[in-house]
Amino acid sequence: MPYDPVKDFDPIIIAAMSPEVLVVHPSVPAQNLQELLALVRSGKFNQFAHPGVGTPPHLSTELFRHSLKLDVILVPFNGGGPMAQSVVAGHTPVAISSLPAVAAMIKSGLLRALAVTSTKRISMLPDVPTMEEAGVPG
């Protein structure tokens, strides 16, 4: 090819954004991200659900786990629906999920949102801090 597809083109728009949200089952006593991190580091609530290997929430969970040096078990599911059902049932009490998979469950109180992965707060969840506001930069 007479051009380099990476170097010779510049993006002109953001094609899509999909913020994710860290959610917990209501029985998890953490009311914010720092409290959750303390519980996880103490060996409690160390199972994190994700909707499948290689999905954006899985990669976000891996980044979260690795950057904070957390000893957690990642539990894969076959999609966001089964993952959300497991968190709602309390089987895997923590997850980083795409917003559409859990938005209604957050609004109805079946799940509690502790942080969003976007750089700004999400209008649908104005009281939920960003990861950075909650003390996890990057």
Structural overview:
The protein has 138 residues and is an alpha/beta fold. It has one domain (20-116): D-Maltodextrin-Binding Protein, domain 2 (3-Layer(aba) Sandwich), CATH 3.40.190.10. 29% of the residues lie in helices and 17% in strands. The protein is built from four helices and five strands. The chain has helices spanning 33-41, 56-67, 80-89, 99-107, and strands at residues 20-24, 47-50, 73-76, 94-98, 112-116. A five-stranded mixed beta sheet has the order 3-2-4-1-5. Strand 2 (47-50), helix 2 and strand 3 (73-76) form a beta-alpha-beta unit. It is globular.
Brief overview, please?
The protein is of the alpha/beta class and 138 residues long.
List keywords for this structure.
alpha/beta; D-Maltodextrin-Binding Protein, domain 2; 17% strand
Ordered list of secondary-structure elements with their pairings:
Layout: E1 20-24, H1 33-41, E2 47-50, H2 56-67, E3 73-76, H3 80-89, E4 94-98, H4 99-107, E5 112-116
Parallel strand pairs: 2-3, 2-4
Antiparallel strand pairs: 1-4, 1-5
Between the first and last Cα atoms, what is the distance in angstroms? 36 Å
The CATH first-level class comes to: Alpha Beta
CATH superfamily: Periplasmic binding protein-like II
Bin the strand percentage.
15-25%
Order of helices and strands: EHEHEHEHE
Number of domains: 1
Number of helices: 4
Radius of gyration: 16 Å
Give the overall shape.
Answer: globular
The overall pLDDT, averaged over residues, is 93
